[in-house]
Structure formats: C-alpha cells, structure tokens
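Structure (tokenized):
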C-alpha cells in the first residue's frame, strides 16, 4: 500500500512516515500543497493524508483539484483542534474522513485500514490464480500440484500480489518500481528484472504452471503456461 503524506510540519510528517513504514506501508511525504497535488495526481496512492493549513495551496483546494481530475484516492484530512467548520468543508471538498490533531498513531492506523478497505483493496490473507496460492499473512507461495511451499521476502510478495491482482495484464516496469519501491526511489529496471527473476525461480520451484512473461519492452504479465 502506498500512502502520501502532505503536511508542512516536517517533524509531524516524518514521524507519521516512520510509523507507517513500520507497518509496511510505502510512504512519500511532501511539505506543501502544490507538491501534494502533483504527487496525488499520479494516482498511485491508496490513501492521501492531507493537512488543511499548507503553504502554496490549502488542503481543501488540493482535495477539490484531485476530485476535479477524477482522482478517487481516499483522502484523510488533518484538521486543527476541533474546528467543526473545517470538518464540513473538508468533506464537501471530497475528503473521505478527517482526524483532529493531535491524534494517536493507533487512531491513524485504524482510520487508514478503514479507508483502504473501503476502496476494495482489502488486506487479504491469501490470493489465488490458476494453480498458485499466495499466503499473504505468512509470505509464502504454494502450488496446488506440487505440494511445495516457499517463502517470499517482502518485495517478492508485494510484486506477486500486484501480478496476481491483474493476471494477464501487462504491468510496466515503471509501474512496478513506483508500486513496490515508491514514487521517489532510485530503483531502476535492473531491480525489477532481479525480482522478476527471483519470482520465476520460486514459481518453478513450486512446480507451478503459472509464469511471468516479458512483454517486449512494455513490462511483464502473469499468465498460465499454455
Ligand atoms: Ca499545517
């Protein structure tokens, strides 16, 4: 899951980012409204945590602009104190939820879980495609045929989840980089190639009939060997 934090209080933004990273979220943090809009427009986030009072563009306007551009990413607005007016205005601007500062990390995590679930991207225990099952809770891959199971590391698991959520669909290397390494990362095509090769070996190990095929220069897709 990718989360964008738009908060000009740098210490708060960095503290939130750290809490979320500990929970295995991928996090980008920006410190003003215009950057928030630019990052948010990418559409790659599963949730945007958006402060109201921001330099260059306030949170309401950022949210309104995103909705105008048909970006439906859930927005969790951070409002100061308990200004009721702000809450109403935030919801009118298209925010999905709001939270009053100060708040506890637990409250933030609970709200995030609700918002990302509402979007339909439930944190499932397992995913299946053809003969393979990815056990997300245990980070293992198994195959119905071979009765073999193998452990996946975090990035392998994230990558396979992405492939299994869109089987038979080509996913570009750039998409894989942004979804798995993050919007701002230094990762390149060679990182993607390395992880695809790890996954291919693991699919072969469990004797699956599913494979990751390269689609020329476009990217990769998960498919059943025909
Ligand atoms: Ca602020």
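Design, position by position:
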């Amino acid at each position: 899951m990718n989360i964008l934090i738009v908060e000009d209080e740098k210490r708060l933004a960095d503290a939130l980012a750290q809490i979320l990273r500990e929970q295995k979220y991928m996090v980008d943090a920006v410190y003003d409204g215009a950057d928030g809009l630019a990052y948010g427009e990418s559409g790659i986030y599963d949730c945007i945590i958006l402060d109201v009072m921001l330099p260059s563009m306030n949170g309401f306007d950022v949210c309104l602009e995103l909705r105008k551009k048909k970006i439906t990413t859930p927005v969790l607005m951070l409002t100061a104190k308990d200004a009721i007016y702000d809450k109403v205005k935030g919801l009118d601007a298209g925010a999905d939820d709001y939270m009053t500062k100060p708040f506890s990390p637990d409250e933030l995590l609970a709200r995030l879980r609700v918002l990302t679930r509402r979007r339909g991207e439930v944190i499932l225990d397992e995913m299946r495609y053809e003969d393979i099952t990815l056990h997300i809770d245990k980070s293992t891959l198994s195959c119905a045929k071979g009765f073999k199971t193998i452990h996946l590391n975090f990035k392998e698991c994230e990558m396979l989840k992405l492939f299994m959520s869109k089987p038979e669909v080509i996913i570009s290397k750039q998409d894989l980089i942004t979804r798995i390494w993050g919007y701002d990362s230094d990762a390149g095509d060679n990182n993607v190639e390395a992880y695809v090769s790890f996954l291919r070996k693991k699919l072969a190990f469990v004797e699956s009939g599913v494979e990751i095929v390269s689609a020329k220069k476009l990217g990769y897709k998960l498919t059943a060997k025909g």
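Reviewer-requested clarification: The chain has a mean pLDDT of 88. Helices lie at 10-22, 33-40, 59-68, 84-92, 105-118, 154-165, 173-181, 189-205.
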